[in-house]
Amino acid sequence: MSAEPQTTTPKTTVPLLDLTAQFRSIEPEIRAALEGVLVSGRYIGGPEVAAFEKEVGAYCDVPQAVACASGTDALVLAMRALGVGPGDEVITPAYSFLASASAIALVGGQPVFVDVEPDTYNMDPSKLEDAISAKTKAVIVVHLFGQCANLEAIQTICKRRNVPLVEDAAQAIGAEWQGKRAGSWGEIGCFSFFPSKNLGAFGDGGLVVSTRDDLGDKLRLLREHGARPKYHHIELGMNSRLDALQAAVLRVKLRHLESWTEGRRRNADTYRQSLAGVPVGLPVARQEARHIYNQFVVRSTKRDALRASLSAAGVGTEIYYPKPMHVQPCFDALGYKDGDFPVSEAAARETVALPIYPELTRDQVAYVSERVRDFAISPS
User: Fold this and answer.
1) Measured between alpha carbons, how far apart are the two ends of the chain, in Å?
2) Looking at the domain that runs over 21-254, which CATH code has it been given?
3) Does the pLDDT of residue 2 top 50, yes or no?
4) Cα separation, 150 vs 306, whole angstroms
């Protein structure tokens, strides 16, 4: 009798993200919260959404917090509230998720891209002022991977040029710059509650915040068809509301967010210690910033080979983002080309995210670190 073919499997499997581990840790609280909404009969808006807006606004240290259907909608609402339309330019980084730029185009505006810093991957303030023109209606700064951009420098430029600042903080809830929370620096801040975020819903969800009461009022009007009162439409708005079930989930999770953030930060510190001296670029955490590590992004000129090696060892990874905005086909009409933003293009070629979620065990972090070290020091 012939022997069965032998297969090998990695001795340890470390996913990029394990949302079931998080759910198990808070399952009784989640089930109770969902049950409360189910028996209430209030599934859109209502007390759960109002309570969440109050609680998350306090967490972000802003007076106005307006829940909506997604992080992308949050950005579109921000553009609408600031009056961005045809003929208007909005400046944003070339290296980011699509929504940062697509929200501008979706309201008829034109994205104007600038390059990023080579160490933080956030907007390079030294590139911003030259990009501002008479047509500039706003600036969207992105706090990529959980670390705030240089908000002091960027805000100073925006104020000097009288251009509103919008913070895309989709990956940065709880992040800080000089002790001040993400979302509280600009006229408007935008957050996403996509399940993979540090504060994630059980589906899509978003939030728009502002330090200005007039903008808070405008955002509330726009998210519900521009109606006030009901069936009396002052202007054309959107249908972008947060479900009460999602608000209930987020209220539970918000109570745990700080401890989860500290877990991510501990894992990041462990990676740094374990990978010290290894020829792989590690995330730069600025002294002025509180990095909340939505992603832990490392860098290698052999990125694709590193990722393949980790995959073979059972380690989940992801590339954020393999193609900068200025060379995405949907923006061909803007006339950008390869080479226009070399720092963004290099980041797209060389970066890869490792697992960083707070439920990782020390053994799992050690295993990932060992596999990265093995690859980096291999003679091949």
Assistant:
1) 40
2) 3.40.640.10
3) no
4) 30
